[in-house]
Design goal:
Layout: H1 5-8, H2 89-108, H3 117-125, H4 130-139, H5 143-148, H6 152-160, H7 164-187, H8 195-214, H9 232-238, H10 256-295, H11 308-342, H12 347-376
Length: 382
């Protein structure tokens, strides 16, 4: 599965190991052909210096303190603005981000109006550094990536992690293998006679695995602010990060309360996913057991039906608590903060390590689910 990642890996510039003193853009040689609408307040064609060197900021700021807040956080705890830091260092970061992004777009010959609306708005507000624009332009070279970038959720995750698709493939691949093996172990000689049930269980497992990777994945937030009429709770959760432990981008910060809100919000989503997937899978399994008993009276009573509601709710709680916390730590701490800086220039080794830790996490999750199910009484220990 680590080999799979090579098909999704898009080469990106190494920004994590290069200091500001030696990371500069070459001399620009372009004609100022951007329209006047492409320039925002304080930035015009007259302000472009043809011999100017642009220092490219890394995608994520490395300094994390005060509960994960990277810059001056004037309003992060209130849920307004996502802790953008409008003054002081935050304002300087945004000005630098805006200048870098506009320079890179001009250098590549890309019009601001041709970008997705959320990305263009983020550039105008100075929310994203130039390295995000560099990664966007690199991803646009791939037809598959270009198609996926049309969807806002994938766009935010691919801009934050160029191995996101590889991790999806790893997780779903491991899930299919382990779930199929578990189904065969449970059914043995009846495996091929009950393929319909096996297929339904495996499909539900794939959906759950997909959401476990997708929801807690670190993102480059491009969401526009909510309207003034939105409630305070909606604004708070809207400004929370997608991963509680993700590194904030330069010019953006998250308060400790917002990071805790990310855990609560993803927990609620995973509860719904887990309960629904288990509800469908358990109902299909029970229906098959009853149908088989009606046809073959000798098999009636051999296999007990599974309690649908209690099992589904229990699985939803398990995903909201255990799975949610494990995948948040895996994506935000192990991969983004530890493995990525260490192996940034060695994508194959990084993919192999991600595969290893995700496989181990899946195995750990299986063990924890069995213990949890037996503890609450929905599975019997033999």
């Amino acid at each position: 599965m680590a080999i799979t990642s090579s098909f999704f890996c898009v080469p990106t510039p190494n920004t994590s190991s290069i200091s500001e003193s030696n990371l500069t853009r070459p001399h620009l040689s372009f004609s100022p052909r951007l329209s006047s609408s492409s320039f925002i307040a304080g930035f015009s064609a007259k302000s472009i210096s043809f011999n100017r060197r642009v220092t490219i900021s890394p995608v994520f700021s490395a300094s994390i303190d005060n509960g994960g807040s990277d810059n001056n956080n004037n309003n992060g705890g209130s849920g307004g603005g996502g802790g953008d830091g409008d003054g002081g260092e935050g304002g300087e970061d945004r000005d630098r981000n805006r200048s870098e992004a506009m320079m890179l777009l001009a250098e590549s010959g890309t019009e601001l109006e041709s970008l997705p609306k959320d990305l263009a708005a983020a550039i105008k507000s100075g929310k994203i550094p130039g390295s995000v624009i560099t990664r966007f332009l690199e991803l646009q070279r791939s037809a598959v990536m270009r198609w996926l970038m049309q969807f806002a959720g994938f766009r935010e995750r691919l801009l934050a992690d160029d191995l996101f698709l590889a991790k999806l493939a790893m997780e779903c691949g491991v899930g299919v293998f382990t779930k199929t093996a578990a189904e065969y172990e449970k059914r043995r000689e009846n495996f091929f006679n009950e393929l319909e049930v096996v297929f339904a269980d495996v499909v539900m497992a794939i959906i759950a695995d997909f959401m476990l990777v997708y929801l807690p994945a670190p993102t480059v937030s491009l969401r526009p602010p909510l309207t003034l009429s939105a409630g305070g709770l909606s604004k708070f959760f809207h400004n929370c990060p997608d991963n509680a432990f993700q590194i904030a981008m330069s010019g953006t910060s998250y308060s400790l309360l917002q990071r805790l809100g990310a855990i609560a919000r993803n927990g609620a989503k995973l509860f719904a996913v887990g309960t629904t997937s288990s509800l469908v899978g358990t109902a299909v399994t029970n229906a098959f057991i009853k149908a088989k008993g009606a046809v073959d009276k000798t098999s009636e009573g051999e296999v007990e039906t599974v309690p649908i509601l209690s099992t589904s709710v229990a699985y939803g709680v398990y995903m909201a608590v255990s799975s949610n916390l494990r995948y948040q730590v895996l994506a935000g701490v192990v991969e983004q903060r530890l493995l990525e800086p260490l192996l940034h220039q060695h994508k194959l080794a990084l993919s192999a390590m991600c595969f290893a830790v995700r496989t181990g996490n899946t195995f750990l999750g299986s063990l924890l689910w069995v213990d949890y199910a037996r503890l609450i009484g929905i599975q019997k220990s033999h």
